């Protein structure tokens, strides 16, 4: 009798231990499909996201499939690419910038969308509010109060005689227009004139550079977005050739030879975007997840470029720099 009771006890324990293992095995056997929608691809930034996903247990080729749809900076292609991802019934769409999330929202109201490096998600109509986005989109915005003003102030510290600044911005990106307006407002307070230089595609840069030569500014601000990021080599080379001190929004511009950059930590935003994707894959509703703002910012200066431009970087500025490229 005693042996029979013990046997039943062991059988029950074995069942209780096996049940969760079976559930885990079933979940482990599922393959998730993510759609990546962007105006342009960036292998380095993509690897940051995939590395963060691996840390959360999602490995591409094992339990994760990534459907990539990049528009090669032809924004008019984004609606069709978003529709493709919607037709594939991916589990989540990771949408870069502002125009891509807008295209994704028009293509689907049911597939969750995780936005990142998005400017003004409320003003552009992507979300109802930052605290409660509603709908099917959430994620991270790069919009941050006083960012444009901070960049102008830093550039003025680098160039004490700064009086006229040109701004290169993508007129096809609603957020870039917001940044231009904020830069103009900050410039008025600092007594700096602003020259607007619009681009909409890679074909516009030759004309933009010609307009810059005619405008003869003594400073340049480049509003970061997928288009200007893709063309950063051309922009940096133009600034160097024309001895034009330039402020950028991403470290990669300075790594390519640009003078100074100040902006959100984009790799950090992508790692946080992976956390949003993970929560949604585990059942969270995007409309209930608050949209987050940047928490990390970086100031990067290229001393070689400063020397080439005959600029002396103030010690007070160097002490606040997160990274110096020599």
Average pLDDT, rounded to a whole number, is 91
Second-tier CATH architecture of the largest domain: 3-Layer(aba) Sandwich
Q: Major sheet, described briefly?
A: 7 strands, mixed
Shape descriptor? elongated
Got a strand count? 12
State the fourth-level CATH superfamily of the largest domain: Response regulator
> Number of folding domains?
2
Report Rg.
24 Å
Weakly predicted, low-confidence segments: 1-26
Quote the beta fraction.
15-25%
Helix residue percentage: 40-55%
Task: Report strand order across the widest sheet.
Answer: 7-6-8-9-10-11-12
What's the helix count? 13
> Do you know the CATH topology of the largest domain?
Rossmann fold
Structural class: alpha/beta
Distance between the termini: 82 Å
Would you list the SSEs in sequence order as H and E? HEHEHEHEEHEHEHEHHEHEHEHHE
Q: Which CATH C-level class of the largest domain is it?
A: Alpha Beta
Can you put this structure into words, describing what you see?
By secondary structure, the chain is α/β, with parallel strands linked by helices. It has 2 domains: about 25-140 and about 265-295, Rossmann fold (3-Layer(aba) Sandwich); about 145-265 and about 300-325, Response regulator (Rossmann fold, 3-Layer(aba) Sandwich). About 45% of the residues lie in helices and about 20% in strands. A 7-stranded mixed sheet has the order 7-6-8-9-10-11-12, sandwiched between helices. Strands 2-1-3-4-5 form a 5-stranded parallel sheet, sandwiched between helices. The longest helix has 27 residues, at about 1-30.
